[in-house]
Amino acid sequence: MNLVRANFKTGLVGGSVIVYLALVGILERFQDRNVITGVVGLGTTLVLLTMFGTGYLVSRPKDDGTSQPFGEGLVAGAFAGALTAAVVLIFEAMLGAGIQVRNMLVSVTPDLLDLLEFGLGPGLGSVALVAVGALLGGLAGALRLLPEDVRGAINYSLIVALALSLSEPLMDGILRGLGIPRRWLYESGGLTIVGTIIVVVVTAYLRWQWMRRRDQIAETRAHMPEDRRILYRRITLVALVAVLVALPWVVGPFISDVLGTVGLYVLLGLGLNIVVGYAGLLDLGYVAFFAVGAYAMGVLTSTASFLVKPENAPFAEHGFTNFWIALPFVVLIAVVIGVLIGAPVLRLRGDYLAIVTLGFGEIIRTLVLSDWLAPYLGGAQGLIRVPPPPPAALDLRDPQHIYYLILVFGLLAAFVVSRLGDSRVGRAWAAMREDESVAEAIGISVIRYKLLAFAMGAAVGSLGGVFFAAKIGSIFPNSFGLLVSINVLSVIILGGMGSIPGVVVGALVLVGLPELLREFGEFRLLIYGAVLVLIMILRPEGLIPNKRRQRELHEQEELVTVGELVTEEGPA
Amino acid sequence: MSHLLELTGVSKRFGGVQAVNEVDFHADPGEIVGVIGPNGAGKTTLFNIVTGFYRPDAGKMTFDGHNLVGLKPNQVTRIGIARTFQAVRLFANMSVIENAMVGQHTRTRSGVFGAILHTRRTVEEERRIQLKAQEALAFFGDRLIPRINQLASELAYADRRRLEIARAMATEPKLLLLDEPAAGMNPAEKDGLIELIGRLRDEKGYAIVLIEHDMPVIKGVCDRVVALDYGSKIAEGTYDEVASNRQVVEAYLGKAASEVQ
Fold first, then answer.
1. Is residue A339 over pLDDT 90?
2. pLDDT tens by residue, A28-57
């Protein structure tokens, strides 16, 4: 009886989630989307997942060790199903009595009820809801009884299968592009039954092997000779670059365009990572550098720029200069503005700094919008006719082409940022981030290193603006709102502060995900928000956190030196 | 004769509180000076004035031929004064070796371009930083060296104290200021600390000024002791002289106690 009472509440919460998803219309709307074609749609999958999740959550190990995972999951799942069944029966009864439920709850359609009843009718369906809830909840609980590696493998394989199914539009395109047979895997928008089984079994097996051998692999790596390890690292890097180079042709123009935008955010994220991740200066006005990069490039190269506009004609034939000549000057301008913005905020810390930088971001946006600067920056009309980077033969406005340009500069920026992080300068930033006063007491000129962080952050971030201008071909003030600053900050928080791979993954999730979710229409941002919340709850340190690099001692010679020092100066 | 560190008539006031009041103070090369006094006597304020965190309202300060007044903390470190803090303040999310490497900051010069291009000078300098940092860590025998890649926050308390001293040593100072190094230590660790401070002077040649409440430690290492109370210097001399000084006993135990004696 205790078991029932203890897990009753969580079960009802699970049931409420299902009812909520049903009433807002998500379930019915998503049901059209196949997860496993001919077996289960996305709507039903959500119901089942919620039941499973309820069982999994409720059965987590307790502090007092009185754990009965199977029973707990079973009870909670059953109650989740029971609550849903109760609601379904109420609606059925109301419909039966001729009450117009849809006057108030527009989503309650016969189709929805049918979905919740698994197509079995009200009576059998309600029983099925309770039974399925108990079964899935119990199964989820039973997972807790399995060894960790097996449980991890099962969870992982289910997630992969679901992800594969949901990314069908993207994956199907990629497979087609690569000429890989895909009929076995996908069928009318979902996974095939055979495909699902293969995917689940194969990923579970691989994951299981990986979990078992992880320590062993790490061990082998640690004992690998230095040159060997460097070789492997290089091979991985080359493979990675090869994939990145092949990508636009595999995924086609639309996704390439999205990847270009992701690339812009990677550049911005790398720059902000210096300021926030390395130096610990919370900058909420980072969009300023994005704007400076875009506008500086626009003014210098646009054929409509005030620098070249002839007296009577609206447009000149050429801009003031071309992209490549302008680029270093743009970066230089950004550095100067970075220092100018950095200087007044040197004495501020934490929250105060954030507020002031927020102000600077808005000032820049207001300036580019102002009538005062309109003759130079175009005001609300913006700057148009920014030509793509020469040579014209390469057609660098094409999404598949400019992707490479962004890729090259992204790699360059990543290289610079990683070298900086792992240097005397990077250590000074890290020390400043950890404890400003102590850093100062150790001999670091806090003023100097703060300015340096702003300058470097501005230089890298301005590249984002530069390619934004080159990619779009026109620049409007409303592209430089507060949301950009927030998005870039989210990219690095999501990816993991101070981590370069984190920036890339963060940008992919934050910029790429909304594009992939387009088919979910009006629920797109709801799902997007839910995913972000989930990620931050499950991985508050970010997707790829920056593990402080384990600095391998340069094995032999230095250990000897240390040994000498110990005997020389050790306790007598 | 001119001293390594010399303070003349140094004062500092916070609002209505005279934190430090016309204090004369000096330390010579190879000397270990203890600063004692009840809580709030102005000991740590004195350290903060010397290291540039506070600017004195009045008085003169010189160190090794440099005028100390008006220097910023990082400049003070550059000319050869290093310090530790009352509550251990390490760079918690940096590794042990990185903490010590940061100490080398003022003794090195590599900047952004060296870091990006890995110029020969930068690479050599980076190597030297590593070595100097390891040298500082190795001073503590096998306490820190085996934990070189751990995060500072993962160290045991006593090792954190050690690392803080190692970080100060890595700045290559002439004068080391220790703010209550024995706080939170057990008697055995205190004995170790007494030995350590002696070694810091004998092997490294530092002048050392330490603030300490623990009298056995003061007695064990100090050549000279200065007592502060309400910001003013009330006694100076050997441990025995200061310990028997009527004003000092009063400051610590109250007036009645000194009358009983």
1. yes
2. 888 888 888 888 888 899 999 999 999 988
Domain that holds residue A160: 153-223
Distance CA A452, CA A429 (A): 9
Domain extent at residue B113: 90-156
* pLDDT one-digit tens code per residue, A90-141: 999 988 888 888 888 888 888 888 889 888 888 899 999 999 999 999 999 8
> Read out DSSP for B148-200?
TTSBGGGS-HHHHHHHHHHHHHTT--SEEEEESTTTT--HHHHHHHHHHHHHH
| Nearest chain A alpha carbon to B108 | A424
Helix locations, A496-523, DSSP H: 500-507, 513-516
pLDDT at A552 over 60: no
Does some domain include residue B165?
A: no
* Tokens 């890595």, located at residue: B170
- C-alpha dist (Å) from residue B207 to A394, B54, B83, B132, B201: 68, 22, 12, 20, 6
Q: Do B105 and A428 touch (CB under 8 A)?
A: yes
Looking at CA atoms only, how far is residue A504 from chain B in angstroms? 20
The CATH number of the domain where B68 resides is what? 3.40.50.300
| pLDDT number for residue A563 | 43
Per-window interface: A 386-425 vs B, CB < 8 A: 415-416, 419-420, 422-425
CB contacts < 8 A, A to B, total 128
Residue of B111, B115, B134 with shortest CB distance to A562: B134
Domains in chain B, number = 2
Q: Of A101-105, A210-214, A218-222, B21-25, which one has max mean pLDDT?
A: B21-25
Residue A20: per-residue pLDDT? 92
Q: Are B43 and B150 in a shared domain?
A: no
Q: Are residues A460 and A312 in the same domain?
A: yes
B38 and B69 part of one domain: yes
Q: Are strands B175-179 and B207-211 parallel, antiparallel or unpaired?
A: parallel
